[in-house]
Write a structure and sequence with these properties.
Blueprint (H helix, E strand, L loop, with lengths): L6 E5 L6 H11 L3 E6 L7 H6 L7 E4 L4 H5 L3 E4 L8 H8 L3 E3 L1 H8 L3 E6 L4 H14 L4 E5 L17 E5 L2 H6 L9 E4 L7 H4 L2 H13 L6 E3 L5 H4 L8 E3 L15 H16 L4 H9 L9 E6 L2 E5 L6 H10 L4 E6 L8 H10 L2 E5 L3 H11 L5 E4 L2 H11 L5 E4 L12 H15 L13 E2 L2
Parallel strand pairs: 1-2, 1-4, 2-3, 4-5, 6-8, 6-9, 7-8, 9-10, 10-11, 13-17, 14-15, 14-17, 15-16
Antiparallel strand pairs: 12-13, 16-18
Length: 448
């Protein structure tokens, strides 16, 4: 791809570094780069500092201007930008190519690519694949939606390496037909998610299935045909279909829960298709310790175990997290309602938890779902996660677990799920060595 001399508009710096890497990449390639973001310079202090010294042609902060897009040859779109965005539409109408950071990397990458998508489990599955490849002595690069752009590493990546990419439905929706592959596609699961963005289940499914549409006959696809939601996907597979390995082939795992064994079954099937040795796969899986903010044991305070599962943004992932924890537990859930089936959280909480504290804009709906499942189940709503944590801490006993697994998006109160998880970890640390806060300071409504 020849970027030299192209007029490139980078639309939104974002919070995970992807478009920052795109800016650096395009400038290295000789493109004339304009960065435009609705946030002002104060809100973008950190990414702007990281881009200091990069020869960006111009910045347009605090607004987008339609004329910038109409003059562009290339528009690098933040995947969170919704379909039908008028600025992107204007650029395309005037002949520009709309592309995402991950597609820029994909089309430039010389290595084999493993693409992992799914409604739940894709981050862990991708990380497990990378762990097994590393145990086999391969150079493995983990990136994509997991929060790390690989564009900055392109000069170091060779044809002998393997890149494992977690890919979201947003990223897949924006991908063009110029994408080829991946060499291995893994679909971990499929259930309603992001319907506020996609508009319907059909559109969401179509976006996910684009990963398979790009493949060739020589590529491989890992799909569990025993999964009713994924059974109908098999006719869309263009390459060689591979089922997940049998559970009996797995070693003992350090990460808890049946869902992680499901993730490992998918990951091992992909690693085996890449030629990893059986011993390397066992060692890689046994040594895998999990990702930050994915059912992560954050601390033990006053005999209580605190689990940070802020990366849980779907009801299904929260339900499996609740089931994975051994012993009595208290649930903290909530955030932005994406139009998903929140009844799953209420049902899992009623079955496994001693009580639930719901926070954020989805709290009232979660409370109604809990009341419908079991009117006697102790559940309350709070404005913030801090208040929800205090309520659970006050009512818990030594030996209990307090599980922060929101099951909803974070953008009603936070920049992203990472900031949400970091705040929770800080709140837990503030409890260390302190008495439980007074219940009189809590503001809540109650079902019981």
């Amino acid at each position: 791809m020849n970027w030299s001399g192209k007029r490139a508009v980078v639309m939104g710096l974002g919070h995970f570094g992807g478009n920052e890497a795109a800016v650096r990449f395009l400038c290295r390639q000789g493109a004339r780069v304009l960065v435009t973001d609705r946030a002002d310079a104060t809100a973008l202090t950190e990414p702007l500092q990281r881009l200091a010294g990069v020869p960006v042609a111009d910045y347009r902060l605090g607004e987008h201007r339609i004329e910038d897009f109409c003059r562009a040859d290339i528009v690098v779109v933040n995947p969170a930008v919704r379909p039908g965005d008028p600025f992107v539409a204007a650029a395309v109408e005037h002949g520009a190519e709309a592309i995402t950071e991950i597609e820029m990397f994909w089309r430039s990458c010389p290595a084999k690519i493993v693409g992992v998508t799914g409604s739940n489990g894709k981050s862990t599955t991708a990380a497990m694949i990378a762990a097994m490849l590393s145990a086999d002595g391969r150079r493995a690069h983990l990136g994509g939606n997991i929060g790390r752009s690989l564009l900055d590493l392109l000069p170091e990546i060779s044809a002998h390496d393997c890149c494992v990419l977690e890919i979201s439905s947003f990223q897949l929706w924006w991908m063009t037909d110029a994408v080829v592959g991946p060499d291995i596609a893994v679909v971990t699961s499929f259930s309603p998610n992001h319907l506020d963005w996609h508009g319907s289940m059909g559109e969401y499914q179509a976006a996910k299935q684009r990963l398979l549409r790009f493949q060739r006959a020589t590529d491989c696809t890992v799909i569990d045909s025993s999964n009713e939601q994924l059974l109908s996907w098999l006719p869309t597979v263009r390459g060689r279909w591979i089922p997940p390995v049998d559970d009996r082939d797995l070693p003992s795992l350090a990460v808890p829960g049946k869902h992680n064994r499901v993730n490992a079954r998918h990951a091992m099937a992909a690693a085996r298709a890449l030629g990893c040795s059986e011993e390397a796969m066992r060692q890689g899986l046994m040594g895998y310790r999990g990702l930050p903010q994915r059912l992560e044991l954050t601390a033990e305070v006053a005999g209580r175990r605190f689990f940070n599962d802020s990366a849980s943004t779907t009801p299904e992932s929260t339900a499996v997290a609740i089931e994975a924890i051994e012993g009595p537990l208290w649930l903290i859930a909530g955030g932005k309602d994406k139009g998903c089936n929140l009844r799953q959280i209420a049902e899992a909480a009623a079955r496994f938890a001693l009580g639930a504290a719901y926070f954020g804009s989805g709290a009232e709906r979660l409370l109604r779902e809990s009341a419908a499942v079991d009117s006697r189940f102790p559940a309350r709503t709070f404005e913030s996660a801090a208040e929800a944590l205090r309520w659970c801490f006050n009512r818990s006993r030594p030996g209990d677990a307090i599980v922060f697994s929101p099951g909803c998006a974070s953008t009603d109160q936070y920049r992203n799920f990472r900031q949400r998880g970091e705040e929770f970890a800080a709140l837990v640390c503030s409890l260390n060595g302190q008495a439980a806060p007074s219940a009189a300071s809590q503001r809540a409504s109650s079902t019981a």
